[in-house]
Write the structure tokens for this entry.
Amino acid sequence: MNDIIRWNEQYYILASSSLAVGRTEVLKHGETFAVFDRYGDIHHALSGPQGLYHEGTRFLSRFELSLQAQRPMLLSATVKEDNALFTVDLTNPDLIVNGQRRVTRGMLHVCRTRFLWQGTCYERIRVHNYGATKFPLLLTLTLEADFTDLFEARGRQRERRGSRLKTIRSKTGPVFGYKGLDGTIRRTSVRCSPAPKQVTDEGFVIESHIPPHADATWEIAIACEIQPQRHHVALAYDRAYGDANRALQRDKTGDAHVYTANEQFNHWLNRSLSDLHMLISETPQGLYPYAGVPWFSVPFGRDGIITALQMLWMNPLFARGVLGFLAATQATEIRPEQDAEPGKILHETRQGEMAALGEIPFGKYYGSVDSTPLFIVLAGAYYERTGDRAYLRMLWPHIQSALQWIDQYGDPAGVGFTTYARQSDHGLVHQGWKDSHDSVFHADGTTAKGPIALCEVQAYVYRAKQAAAAIARMLGDSDRADRLLKEADSLRDRFERAFWCEKLGTYALALDGRGRPCRVRTSNAGHCLYGGIAGQERGARTARNLLREHMFSGWGVRTLATSERRYNPMSYHNGSVWPHDNAIIAAGMAAYGYKEGAMKILTGLFDASLFLDLHRMPELFCGFSRRPGESPTRYPTACSPQAWAAGAGFQALQACLGLEIDGTRRLVRFVRPVLPPFLERVELRNLTIGAASLDLVLDRHENKVALTVARRTGEVEVVLIV
């Protein structure tokens, strides 16, 4: 992932902010996300991510409910499978007055339901009295709004901050305010209906007398307001929830659906698809999957592209939105402080006070070496999937600019490989997907000095030039297409000579600035299979070595082999297991005919999902070897949900099925499909190819997979290659 903290202490995510200490629940809509504990509270005393955030700022840092001046007892907490609603069931503890038990626990049921919609957190609190007498209810909600920037919540210290505004007390709740150093006024407006008994600077108090076997309901809206922007007026709870659900259903209309005979597998993929829809935000160019909650709930170029590639067979609208947004934000000039150069594709873009003031370089930041070739790869894959000539014609100038960046700025020294070296002291040291400060090194553990040429980046460039050639030919420029294919072939020859390590049986992680290979066993080599740059025999050896004990933990392929000097199963990039990394490797293995490897990876990820909260795949987990009957070990600051982790299951399943969709010819192919023993049947429903639509059934038999077309509308051919 794009963890922008590992290379420099000032952006480090403090260990005290561990997401693994106690279970938290998350909600997200658009530019707003929230992290709560299982009671539905936000604790101001705990460091870390809890809070209500909007456009990079925490608008609510405390939200604690007490019942009769005590914390209620937790019965259960759950997030709906579609991630639309967070529900908490509470009850009263034994209430002691003057040394005597006056109310027995379990007399009251307190139900809190909550969702986000258009910059507002909506909550309904319903209290039911199961007692035989009238209950004098006292609910206290304590609130604070610290208006810290997300990077402050991550542990960054600031020398100066803006000023808090005087809290306004309305009849329905408090309004907190803050004027930032950027001159922007941010307000948190709280409204309770019916109006509470008392409103203070710290929240409000609800008093009521609830008759026996009766209930009472209050609705709360917490609006995040940024002036002078125009904001939607907070709606009534039911109307807002209806609007939110209709929007969610509308966004899902283009999805294909996977149903299998294994209900646990279904739960994993259903949660993954719901996570993706929760992370998707609407941009002027279309749908964009934000990277992950809590630390990366913004557009990242690399993450968005890979997520779109993972989901391309399921819903090509994701890819269209990603391509449009990244084309619109493509760099057009040299800006060293942003690592920007003409034609380069975005690494990330953030909002918030610190980004606006330049205290962090990520307002618009271009420090990734792989986003640009991957942009071209996605454009080519989108065209193959959809046959959308008009959209590719519109994108072609941006693709040409990206190709020019690869040839000119991506290889400034003329070494024949795409390299990176940051231009600013505030930028990322390492600019591949493993962007921690210690992720690129030699076999003796010494840090590799740049400019760095990563093995997987050359594979992406190889595949990008092939994709661009196909697009150029479609647009009628055969000469350009031929040149691009020759450039790709030449790159492949150079790559094989420079990166192959015969003794290791795999490709070097990188070449340093002196052209010396980093001879370490890493998962990066698996991406070379995905890019297609590896020779057939060497690709097969690489695939087999990735599944040996020193690389495969039992849950997935480690980022670094246990035999390497810097191996640490608890590190971010040097021994951990990343689901998206594994899915890319599975796709690469399948492309080289090693379906057994793809099945092993799919099986490992599925087995891990059985132990995870909500079957939700996190950004990463630790790389300890699998122990019988035990779960994978959580990584303390992993984002969950994470977009490309949610897409991993779909990509790994596609790899096993050998599913290829050619929208230009209205053709669906299954190339030597395989299914693991736990998947006896897989049904693909609403698989769309242009105006056509398919329902397909794949049944596993002892030595083969049978294919049945259950429904077909429109003109589309289905082929099974065994």
Q: What stands out?
A: The radius of gyration is 27 Å. Residues 9-248 form a domain with the Beta-galactosidase; Chain A, domain 5 fold (CATH 2.70.98.40). The first helix runs from residue 150 to 153.
